[in-house]
Specification:
Blueprint lengths: L4 E5 L6 H20 L6 E5 H7 L48 H17 L1 H13 L22 E5 L2 E4 L4 E4 L14 H13 L8 H14 L3 E5 L2 H16 L3 E5 L12 E6 L2 E6 L12 E4 L6 H8 L3 E6 L12 H14 L2 E6 L11 H5 L5 E4 L10 E5 L1 H4 L30 H17 L2 H24 L3 E6 L2 E6 L9 H7 L2 E2 L5 E2 L6 H21 L12 E3 L1 H4 L6 H15 L20 H13 L7 H12 L1 H4 L17 H14 L15
Parallel strand pairs: 1-2, 5-17, 7-10, 7-11, 11-12, 12-13, 15-19
Antiparallel strand pairs: 3-4, 4-5, 6-14, 8-9, 13-14, 15-16, 16-18
């Protein structure tokens, strides 16, 4: 007997919503019938009768009903940069690949057998772990195709650039505790500080003196007025927003799609972008609609983004930005961030930089130094933690006074008169975390800007080598990097490409499908082993027939700070800087005298540099010494007088072929690395 299925048809006065639901129900019923092996027989039921029985809740934004008029069509936003991935994309299950060839199935099965033989104790532990611990990380990148190797490697120990699992395997690590390990895993100076703190006890109701020093150092490095501490990155961003709301008296905030600000409901959002407006919806199950009603979600590539922001800005307490996304390090928005800064400053809205991941990595002053844009509040975390739970909120006094009412003094009639918002947690300022954080921030202060400059340069060399490997081998992978972090992504849609991380692990290199980081602990020996691991893992996958050669365009992107800040400098000034740079590298006469006009450097418009958005982050002004003033005056008198201070050096290069472009690049790198080669004298003849 055929299986009879009731199919719905619209009544004469059906609405568009009813018609849509009718179509969906019909499709589902046809699918069920086919799965059951029956033939569907249509029994017509008016859809409006079904709608009376099934109440469909409408998700509402502050000003809109869930139903969108037909005229409010969703805008088609085109990404300005290729290779942009959505936040939390690595938590999605991997589908597809059911049409594997016999060779691929056999190769995959053989690989999984080898993998489990090497890391078997981790698998056993994972099996037990899953029974009692509901661990979100255990399903990252899950696929039924390789279900038997979907588990975390279990930790035995970690130190410097290495980790060891419970099977005794050693790996060069690039996950680096999700960016925490700026100085490598448990550097000696942090280990000693933590051991000393543990010996002294962990009474968390007392004030650790080092907490004050952490705040002082952060203020001095960043230029902010005040600091308060928290436990996690999520807490820090939450506190920053709460301070902005307290200071402004407003509730709404603006965030951007694909930025990640932690797991608080108001940040776990996605945007629906319409012409002239944007709507916000929860980005995860378990988040009620009303929790995101005070969040405006924008898109960086929306051509109307600034207009939408300006339309809503009167109601906003803050605009929260992740200045450089760790999962998309190549996708940067320097000019847009600058315009947002101008707009928020004009309307008294706080600009918050979420720098939990990349704070103190990109630049000594973080994103403020990287972009040359001053924020009102920044949230810092991983790099200042020393590996223990500690984070920080730093900002202007106007906002930071929301935590304690403002500065007051003993011995007078002052008091904390400001409006105070509640912000407290049992483990904030616990002495052990504070000891680790103080050790880390003190080391950041001690090394100075050279820390970021050297680490960023190291990462550029690393990324360039990985790019060369991908291009030469035609591997279907790409690297995107900025500062000292990078992402490995896939250049094709083959789901088996996602096995690359597992093949790398078998070759002693630990990466995951998420941001990877370099540390000061990574050595050239580590890099050479890593390059070899990449080469072998790629060869293994090709041999197994799991990947195919990639013949498309070069999708690798390596961002340098000069690239990211280029748009902040006017073209006319950039041309002059290029001219000065070229003269310092190439344009010399036979006696070693630069071919520049008299007074060329003296006339360099430093005021224009300051107004270009670089501020104190892009420029340092110091007084000339008496000797420098003498040289400056000689240069102003005549070019002949200036020659007395020139020293000519001859370098003889021997070889059959001179690569002029590489020589230029090497000399340019030298100039970029040393401030002395980029220093100019101001027009006043007293400062540089």
């Amino acid at each position: 007997m055929p299986n009879v299925q009731s199919m719905v048809t619209p009544s004469a006065n059906s609405s568009q919503l009813e018609t849509l639901i009718q179509q969906q129900l019909n499709l589902i019923q046809q699918q069920l019938s086919l799965l059951q092996g029956g033939v569907s027989q249509v029994v017509q039921t008016p859809v409006h009768r079904l709608l009376k029985k099934v109440q469909i809740p409408a998700a509402k934004s502050p000003t809109e009903n869930a139903s969108t008029p037909r005229s409010e069509e969703e805008s088609q936003i085109t990404r300005s940069t290729k290779g942009v991935t959505a936040k939390m994309g690595n938590y999605k299950k991997i589908s597809g690949g059911d049409d594997l060839t016999d060779q691929q199935r056999q190769a995959l099965a053989a690989f999984m057998q080898r993998y489990n033989a090497k890391i078997g104790n981790s698998k056993d532990l994972s099996e037990r772990h899953r029974q009692f611990y509901a661990d979100p990380r255990s399903t990252t990148g899950f696929s039924k195709l390789w279900k038997e190797i979907c588990y975390q490697i279990a930790h035995e120990k970690s130190k410097g650039s290495k980790i060891w699992d419970v099977d005794g395997n050693e790996y060069i690590d690039y996950v680096m505790s999700y960016g925490v390990a700026l100085f490598g895993h448990m550097p000696d100076f942090v280990e000693e500080a933590v051991i000393d703190a543990i010996r002294k006890g962990n009474s968390i109701d007392l004030l650790p003196a080092q907490a004050t020093e952490i705040a002082r150092i952060i203020c001095e490095i960043t230029g902010y007025d005040r600091v308060t501490l928290a436990n996690t990155g999520t807490e820090a961003v939450l506190g920053a927003v709460r301070a902005a709301r307290t200071a402004t008296g407003k509730e709404r905030i603006a965030v951007f799609d694909t930025d990640y600000h932690g797991m608080i409901d108001q940040f776990m959002v996605r945007g629906i972008h319409l012409k002239g407006k944007s709507k916000t919806l929860p980005a995860s199950p378990g988040i009620p609609n009303y929790m995101v009603e005070n969040t405006l979600t924008l898109d960086y590539d929306d051509p109307e983004v600034l207009q939408k922001l300006e339309n809503e800005i009167a109601d906003l307490a803050a605009v929260v930005i992740e200045p450089v996304q760790a999962q998309n390090p190549h996708w940067q928005h320097q000019e847009l961030v600058k315009k947002i800064r101008q707009l928020t400053e004009k309307h008294g809205v706080a600009l918050i930089f979420d720098e939990i991941i990349n704070g103190f990595r990109m630049h000594q002053r973080g994103a403020q130094g990287w972009y040359g844009v001053e924020a009102d509040i920044s949230a810092y975390g991983k790099s200042i933690s020393g590996g223990l739970p500690i984070s920080a909120i730093a900002g202007k006094a106007k906002y930071m006074d929301a935590f304690d009412g403002g500065v007051w003094n003993f011995g007078d009639d002052s008091s904390p008169d400001g409006v105070i918002s509640y912000f407290a947690s049992t483990f904030i300022k616990n002495p052990i975390s504070v000891a680790a954080g103080y050790a880390a921030i003190k080391e950041i202060e001690r090394i100075g800007p050279a820390l970021q400059a050297d680490l960023n340069e190291k990462t550029i060399r690393f990324a360039e080598r990985i790019r060369e490997i991908f291009l030469r081998t035609k591997a279907p992978f790409m690297i995107q990097s900025a500062s000292s972090f990078y992402m490995l992504k896939y250049a094709d849609s083959n789901p088996l490409s996602k096995l690359f991380n597992y093949f790398l692990r078998m070759r002693g290199v630990n990466v995951r499908e998420r941001p990877c980081f370099l540390s000061t602990a990574h050595s050239e020996e580590d890099f050479e082993k890593t390059y070899q691991g990449f080469e072998l893992a790629i060869a293994d996958m090709f041999e197994a027939g799991l990947i195919q050669p990639y013949e498309g365009e070069d999708l690798n992107v390596i961002v340098r700070q000069s690239d990211s800040s280029a748009d902040l400098v006017p073209n006319s000034l950039r041309d002059r800087q290029s001219s000065v740079r070229q003269s310092s590298v190439r344009q010399f006469d036979s006696q070693g005298v630069p071919q520049a006009k008299t007074g060329e450097l003296a006339n360099c418009p430093t005021a224009e540099l300051r107004t270009a958005g670089l501020g104190t982050a892009g420029l340092k002004t110091i007084n000339l010494t008496e000797g420098q003033q003498e040289i400056f005056l000689s240069d102003q008198i005549s070019q002949e007088a200036s020659k007395a201070y020139n020293i000519a050096t001859e370098i003889r290069l021997e070889g059959e072929v001179l690569d002029v472009e590489k020589m230029k690049a090497a000399l340019q790198a030298l100039v970029d690395r040393h401030e002395a080669l980029r220093t100019i004298i101001n027009e006043d003849g007293k400062t540089q």
